[in-house]
Design brief:
Radius of gyration: 17 Å
Number of strands: 8
Largest sheet: 8 strands, mixed
Number of helices: 7
Order of helices and strands: EEEHEHHEHEHEHEH
Strand content: 15-25%
Strand order of the largest sheet: 1-2-4-3-5-6-7-8
Structural class: alpha/beta
Length: 257
C-alpha cells in the first residue's frame, strides 16, 4: 500500500486505511493459545504498543477480524500488535438467536448473558495483560478496544485506578453505557456510537469524561456496524465502517501517551 501524506487535518494513519473487503476476507494474522485463551494475533512482531480487542457477543467474525487487521497494519509510523482473545471459549452467541423473537431464543440468550458477564472479563483481563506482557517484552504500553458487549468491559477496566493496565481505550457502539462510570475513566477515551445507542446517554457520558476524548455518533449506522453486524456489501455501511476505523487510528496516533 502506498503512503499518502496527511491532509485536511487528518493524520497520515487516517489517510492510509486499506480498501475494505466486502466478502471473503482473508485474515492477515493467526491464532495462538495465550493465557489459556484462543487468541487472534495480528501486527508487526517488533511493535512497541500492544492493543487488546474485546469482540462482541458473536465472537470471531470476518468483519471484526478485518477491523483488527486495519488497526494493526494501516499506520506505518505507529506499530501496534493486536491480540483478540476468545473470552467465550468457543461458545459465542449463535447468530440464529437474533432477533430474539421467540421465548426459546430469549431464554437461551438470557442464560448466555448470565454466564458471560463483562464485569468478570474486566477482572480476568488484568491478568491476561500480564501474561501477554511477559511473552512480548518489546511492548511498552497497552491500549484497549471493545465492541458492543466488549465496550462495557472497556469502561469497567479503565475505571479501576488500582488495576487498570491500559494507556488508552476505545468503545465502539458500546452496550450498557453508564454515564456515572465516565467520571472514573482514567485514560484517553474514544466512544463511537451508532444510531441505536440512546443519544442523551451518550451525551451525558461525554459530559462527565475528565480525560482527553473523542465521542462521535454515526447517526445512520446500526448497532454493531464496526463488528459482526456490519453488512459490508452495502456501500454506505462499508464507507462508514472504514471511516470509523480511520477515526480510531487518528485518535490512537494523537492521544496515546
Amino acid at each position: 500500500m502506498s503512503s499518502m501524506p496527511a491532509t485536511h487535518g487528518h493524520s497520515q494513519a487516517c489517510c492510509n486505511v486499506p480498501p475494505v473487503v466486502s466478502d471473503g476476507y482473508v485474515p492477515k494474522g493467526s491464532y495462538a493459545q495465550l493465557g489459556g485463551k484462543k487468541t487472534y494475533v495480528t501486527g508487526p512482531a517488533d511493535a512497541s504498543k500492544g492493543l487488546i480487542s474485546i469482540f462482541d457477543i458473536f465472537g470471531f467474525f470476518p468483519q471484526t477480524i478485518q477491523g483488527a487487521d486495519i488497526l494493526a497494519t494501516s499506520d506505518s509510523q505507529q506499530k501496534y500488535k493486536l491480540f483478540m482473545p476468545d473470552w467465550f471459549d468457543g461458545k459465542p452467541v449463535p447468530v440464529e438467536w437474533y432477533p430474539p423473537d421467540t421465548e426459546e431464543k430469549q431464554k437461551k440468550l438470557g442464560e448466555w448473558f448470565g454466564k458471560n458477564s463483562p464485569a468478570d472479563v474486566a477482572v480476568a483481563l488484568v491478568d491476561f495483560v500480564k501474561t501477554l506482557q511477559a511473552e512480548n517484552p518489546s511492548i511498552e504500553s497497552w491500549g484497549l478496544i471493545g465492541y458492543c458487549w466488549g465496550g462495557k468491559v472497556v469502561e469497567l477496566v479503565t475505571s479501576q485506578a488500582s488495576t487498570n493496565p491500559f494507556s488508552i481505550a476505545a468503545a465502539c457502539h458500546p452496550a450498557m453505557v453508564d454515564p456515572a462510570g465516565a467520571e472514573n475513566v482514567l485514560v484517553p477515551y474514544a466512544l463511537l456510537a451508532s444510531m441505536e445507542e440512546p443519544a442523551d446517554t451518550i451525551k451525558e457520558f461525554e459530559s462527565k469524561l475528565k480525560v482527553p476524548h473523542h465521542v462521535e455518533t454515526f447517526s445512520d449506522q446500526l448497532h454493531g456496524f464496526m463488528a459482526a453486524r456490519a453488512e459490508l456489501s452495502d456501500p454506505r455501511i462499508k464507507a462508514e465502517y472504514a471511516r470509523a476505523y480511520q477515526v480510531l487510528l487518528d485518535f490512537f496516533a494523537q492521544k496515546w501517551p
